[in-house]
Design goal:
The protein is mainly beta. It has one domain: Rieske Iron-sulfur Protein, CATH 2.102.10. The strands form four sheets. Strands 3, 4, 6, 7, 8 and 12 form a six-stranded mixed sheet that branches. A hairpin with a 5-residue loop joins strand 10 and strand 11. The longest helix has 15 residues. The chain is globular, with a radius of gyration of 16 Å. It starts with a helix and ends in an 11-residue tail after the last helix. The N terminus is likely disordered.
């Protein structure tokens, strides 16, 4: 029975597109750590309507390197974006963030950051910000160009989400 149970679970995951969306519940506000399907070798377009106070993670494959962008609505209502890697810990491969309640926690060093700090703080042990000059923002979408994503490949060379 155990053998068939695993096979059934694997079949169900494949049918649902395993690997494209991971959601961890436990928040009164909905799912935490939602990872969208991976896009490859093109601009990343984030729909403003899908960004809430729970961080959404957008994997992007640029020329064989997996990057990840996070988007979250800060307490002041602004939408913040950053690369999902720590400015100090990226070289470890584990310098990425997961939402833990109302904060983001670095999976390497354990530092925690409020959503209001995303895209504001630069340097030190913070998510790598994607500033306004590096994206196009409209009322409905945030676009981060493939060329800009390509520039960030180096900080994701050893990155591995787990």
């Amino acid at each position: 029975m155990r053998k068939y149970g695993k096979a059934l679970i694997m079949t169900a995951l494949m049918a649902l597109g395993a690997g494209s969306v991971f959601a961890q519940s436990g928040s009164p506000n909905g799912a935490l750590n939602v990872v969208k399907p991976t896009i490859a070798d093109r601009d990343l377009v984030i729909q403003v309507s899908e960004v809430t106070e729970n961080a959404v993670f957008y994997p992007v494959d640029i020329e064989g390197t997996r990057l990840e962008v996070l988007a979250v609505k800060a307490p002041d209502g602004t939408i913040r974006t950053a690369f999902n890697t720590c400015q100090v810990c990226y070289g470890s491969g584990r310098g990425f963030y997961k939402q833990q309640g109302t904060v983001l926690g670095c999976q390497n060093c354990g530092n925690r950051f409020r959503m209001s700090q995303v895209e504001v703080r630069s340097g030190g042990c913070n998510p790598v910000p994607i500033f306004p000059q590096n994206k196009t923002v409209t009322e409905t979408a945030i676009t981060i160009s493939k060329d800009y994503l390509k520039e960030a490949k180096q900080i994701f060379a050893r990155w591995r989400r787990s």
